[in-house]
Every structure is written in C-alpha cells, then in structure tokens.
Automatic annotation (TrEMBL):
Keywords: Hydrolase. Residues 83-266 form the Alpha/beta hydrolase fold-3 domain. It comes from Emericellopsis cladophorae. It comes from the Eukaryota. Belongs to the 'GDXG' lipolytic enzyme family. The active site is at 154. SUPFAM superfamilies: alpha/beta-Hydrolases (SSF53474). One of its GO terms (molecular function) is hydrolase activity. This is Esterase. Pfam families: Abhydrolase_3 (PF07859).
Length: 318
C-alpha cells in the first residue's frame, strides 16, 4: 500500500493541481502550449536548492546550460566527470523546482557535477526530437567535462535514451565514455497506442492520451512514428551502457516501460513484461501504485527511488 505521503501527493495532483485536465483533451493541451509559448516560464534555477550547492552558467552553442556542483567537490570543476540531466515537462514545459531538487541531490550524492541543458520547447521549430537529441550530443562532445551519465525524466527520459542511441552511431568515442543511463518514467513510444498503455491511462491521475498525442507532430517533424528519435523504444539497444529504468504502475507510460524491459529480455517490442527485473546491463524497477515520475516526488517511495538512483550512478562511474 502506498505511504500516506504518496496518497496525499496523488490527491494534490488530482484535486488541487488538476494535472490531468491539461492532457484530457487535445484542445486543452494546444491551449496550454500556446499560452506558454506566448508567456514563457522562467528556467532560471531557484535561489537556494540546498546547502553547499553552486550553480554556474556554462553554455554550449545556443542553449543555456547550467552546471550544478557540490561545494565539497568545488575544485577542478573543468576535469571532474559530469552527469547530463534532461528535464521533463511534456516537451513544452520548462524545468521546475522538483527537477532542481533532484539535480542538487545528484550533485551531492554522486560526486559528479550535473549539467542541465535548457533545450528548446514545442512549438518552436528547433524543438524536434531529432534536433534536441543532436543538441544533447553536441554538449557531450563540446563540454570541457567528460559526460559519464545521461539521465532524464518523462520527456527528458525520451530525449536521454534517443541521444544515447544516436550517439552510438554519430559519436562512438563519446558514447564509449558513458557509464550509465537513468530513465525515470520515460516517453518511449510516441504513438501511445499499445493496449496496455490505453488500459493504464484510464486510472492514471496525471497523464492522458488525447492531449499527449498533440505533441507527436511537433516532435516527429515528418519522421515515421517508429523512428528511434521519435519513439526510442524501437531504437538499437545493443552496446548501450547499463540502464536503470523506473516507473510506477499508476503511470500509463508503465505500459511502454514494460515493452522496453521485454526487449532487454529478448522478447518482441509489442510484448510487455510486467514486474521489476535485473539483468547484467539493464535494471527495471516497477513500483506498485506509484504515479508518473514518482522518484521526483516528496514521499518515502520517492526518497527510496532517489537513493537507488544515486547508488546505481556511483556504482557505475566509480
């Protein structure tokens, strides 16, 4: 049974934030995209994300890029390895406080700096999945710091996996430097039409299919729906670094997380494999009754997931 705090967070998502209303219809999502395009959210980091955290601007190319460091590791920033964290937000919402808190914890607990790119958002013409993945690869290629981990949640999980897959082909030397990937409730198949996704969407308190499908034409920019940049579920999974994938069973995206798990277990992409699994280079954690991006949320289950993520990263980069 979920903790009291987890039930309270779910109640807040449903009744106070009313998050599902945003995705309940295509019109609602289009209106939100237009509103945020005309009145963009701030992407600036908060003034205080915890004691001992330092945040610098270290832009690469045209994107703002923040480096989040722990004071205890403040010397030699230019040579210390880093994590690249790609925030979620349905491809059209900016980074917000839970992302910054997670990033600050990652900097403290892993000993890595964390690089946070502010990538272009829908409906801007540069906000296609293929172009954003290419921009993430450029950061790995041009950064003064060696990127040893790529992580992301939701839309950011999609982009993190797509970039890692694309990097294997376009920049194999930099791909070889990656020691791990962390995917938190990622968007894996932009079609959102698998029967298990449809079934889970009925009880998902946050996400809905009709609104999310509005995003696909912007992301794909004419590419086929099964192109790996658009739906990384179908990309090459060979020769990737160790992956940690986390999802909750009250998240409709769990249906596609199970399909990725099935692929690593040698099954077809259309066959979902429920339940947590640990393989040599792939770990899937499926948490009962947890909602979308539960590892970022303020409850005991989220804290346990964050601790697991930090241990996974440390074990693979040390």
């Amino acid at each position: 049974m979920p903790s009291f705090a987890a039930r309270l967070v779910r109640w807040y998502i449903v009744w106070i934030r009313r998050a599902k209303v945003l995705f309940a219809s295509s019109d609602n999502t289009r209106n939100s995209i237009q509103t945020l395009y005309l009145c963009p959210q701030s992407f600036s980091p908060p003034q205080n994300v915890g004691q001992g955290i330092v945040i610098d601007r270290v832009d690469v190319n045209e994107w703002p890029l923040y480096r989040v460091s722990a004071n205890a590791h403040s010397t030699g920033k230019e040579t210390r390895p880093a994590m690249l964290y790609v925030h979620g937000g349905a491809f059209f919402r900016e980074i917000d406080l839970p992302h910054w808190k997670f990033v600050a914890q990652a900097a403290r607990d892993t000993g890595l700096d964390v690089l946070v790119p502010i990538y272009p958002l829908i409906p801007r013409p540069t906000a296609t999945a293929e172009k954003i993945a290419a921009g993430l690869i450029d950061i790995c290629r041009l950064s003064e710091q060696r990127i040893v981990c790529v992580a992301g949640d939701s839309a950011g999980g999609h982009l993190a996996l797509a970039a890692a897959q694309q990097m294997r082909e376009s920049q194999p030397d930099f791909a070889a430097q990656l020691r791990c990937l962390v995917l938190i409730s990622p968007v894996l198949d932009s079609a959102l039409d698998h029967p298990e996704v449809v079934r889970l969407s009925r009880d998902d308190p946050w996400l809905a299919i009709d609104g999310l499908r509005v995003l696909t034409p912007f992301l794909s920019a004419g590419l086929p729906i099964k192109h790996p940049a658009v739906s990384p579920l179908y990309g090459d999974i060979d020769h990737l670094p160790p992956i940690l994938l986390l999802c909750g069973t009250s998240d409709m995206l769990c249906g596609d997380a199970r399909r990725l798990s099935a692929r690593f277990q040698g099954k077809d992409a259309n066959e979902g494999m429920p339940g947590s699994v640990q393989l040599d280079n792939f770990t899937y954690v499926e948490q009962a009754d947890m909602i979308h991006v539960y590892p970022l949320l303020p409850h005991s289950e989220g804290a346990e997931a964050r601790d697991l993520i930090m241990r996974f990263v440390r074990n693979n980069v040390e």
